[in-house]
Structure prediction request, 377 residues.
Amino acid sequence: MSLIRILVVEDEPIVAEDIAGRLTRMGYEVVGVVESGEAAIALAEATLPSLVLMDIVLEGELDGIEAAEWLRTNLDVPVVYLTANADESTLQRAKATIPFGYILKPFKERELQATIEIAISRHQAEREVRRALTKQQLWQSLTKREDAQPLDDEARSQYLMMAVHELRTPLSIVKVSASLLRERGGSMSESDRNRNLAYIENAIGNMNDLLEDVLTLSKVNRRRLDFNPEAMALDTFCENLVDAMRWSLGEQYQLVFVVSGERYVVSLDQKLIWHALNNLLSNAIKYSPSASTVTLELVYQPEAVVIRVTDQGIGIPPEDHARLFEPFHRAKNVGSIAGTGLGLAIVKHCVELHGGTIRFSSVLGSGTTFIITLPRQ
Prediction:
């Protein structure tokens, strides 16, 4: 991983020197320390730092908020405010610049480090989403619709904010849980410590899922998604996948695997098939009530294998059927259930790379079945 390079903007020399020293001890590279907004802009243009720690009250004509806005708009450099000034009007002005963090002095090193790491991770995720969305052939490459239209700026902004929001939630969980462990870990019971560690692990898993989807979408859009089919026993593959999910779910859901027909070896890309089935099963679980049954059915037919994933969940409204495989589209009835709408678009592409098809049937309020048909090869 490349070294994180930080620009410090602070007009109190002693404070600035202390911050720079702490950053160096934490393993960051300090590209410079400046006292004014004008100097911050000039040095940022010259060095392109990974992140800027910005005091709000500065010498010169530009205060920290104005400088941060310029950096965000012109250089796409994330800014974390580091200040003792926390009045309501200042906070509102700072919020308008969409900062990546806001730390009040005096601060603890661990708090500073956690904020920096979260800011860097969030910024990288936003960049990946933007890369995926700026390609005007997004609809064509994913849905193969001749009448597909490029995304307009408003749609791109909405999709970007959706993905960033999904990333921000697990990041906040990590920060809060880590803070609790740091501050109270010594007095916590073992069960409380394990619960906070579980929160962190789950949040990291959610972030990883989002980033993997964004990266995969980017590869799909650039037609760089690897396709490496090889001979495999699909029934064993599916059984192992279901067993792994059962272990992670515990007794919350009933996950059933059924296989029928005369079994034979198929030639598939294991990574892409794993991605497709894992996504469909995860969605089936996510949109179903606790203690319900999710079924993965594998049927060997003479000329094709058919895979069905069936749940007893909320179902899909009829008005959403036509657009369900479009990138970022989500059904109207998902409510507050987390998701970005990337998964099914990628699943469809994974299936089509194998020369297969995917369709679904759904009854609102009763459940949904996704059906993948893959030709025998």
The radius of gyration is 24 Å. Confidence is low (pLDDT under 50) at residues 134-158.
